[in-house]
Design goal:
- Strands 1, 2, 3, 4, 5 and 6 form a six-stranded mixed beta sheet that branches.
- The chain has a domain of about 110 residues: 60s Ribosomal Protein L30, Chain: A.
- It is built from four helices and six strands, in the order H-H-E-E-E-H-E-H-E-E.
- About 30% of the residues lie in helices and about 15% in strands.
- By secondary structure, it is an alpha+beta fold.
Length: about 190
């Protein structure tokens, strides 16, 4: 290959890298039409029959979720344990959040009859699929931390909410409260 051809191929490769997909994606017109970040109004996609996609919650134990506070037949008690917050696009437990999980482990040891549901949440940045996976990683990171502290893993359930409960349109800094793992007691 000549020197000019090699340089051209190298330049084209570099240009392809620069024009690749962005790291995060805002809402697109099809997201809005399908109940994406701009059209959300709660746990269920707005304007859509969630059951048509098998999203009635039964696979997660959330039957009759709108009128109850139960998960898999157990009462959900919110607000006893503090949520664990994460950095943007992160699923690792930061040093400032570890005391919250230490307190949760102490609570679980003192109350052997209860279980724990960890819900992973994300801000609205990124695709719904990506955020569901990130919410899962956040919930599992909190679960793994608790297991390493001696909590029996069979007492802990995880569930990713992704960006279903996120506030659309917030900046990355404003969306901090949406990037969390909720620690919910199960009785």
């Amino acid at each position: 290959m000549t020197k000019t051809a090699s340089l051209t191929v190298l330049l084209l490769g570099f240009l392809l890298l620069l024009t690749g997909c962005p790291r995060t994606q805002g809402p697109t017109p099809s997201d809005t039409a399908m109940g994406g970040p701009s059209a959300r109004s709660g746990d269920v996609l707005s304007g859509m029959d969630a059951g048509a996609f098998g999203l009635d919650g039964s696979e997660f134990g959330l039957q009759d979720r709108a009128g109850s506070d139960f998960f898999d037949g157990r009462e959900m008690v919110r607000g006893v344990l503090e949520p664990v917050f994460f950095g943007f696009d992160q699923s690792s437990i930061g040093p400032n959040e570890r005391p919250k999980l230490n307190a949760a482990a102490d609570y679980m040891r003192a109350n052997p009859q209860v279980g724990l549901l960890i819900e992973g949440h994300c801000d609205w940045h990124g695709t719904a699929e990506y955020n569901l996976a990130l919410g899962d990683r956040r919930a599992r990171a909190a679960r793994d931390f608790l297991v390493n502290l001696g909590v029996n893993g069979s007492r802990i359930e995880t569930l990713s909410k992704g960006d279903l409960e996120a506030t659309p349109g917030l900046s990355k800094a404003e969306g901090q409260r949406d990037r969390r793992a909720e620690l919910i007691i199960l009785r």
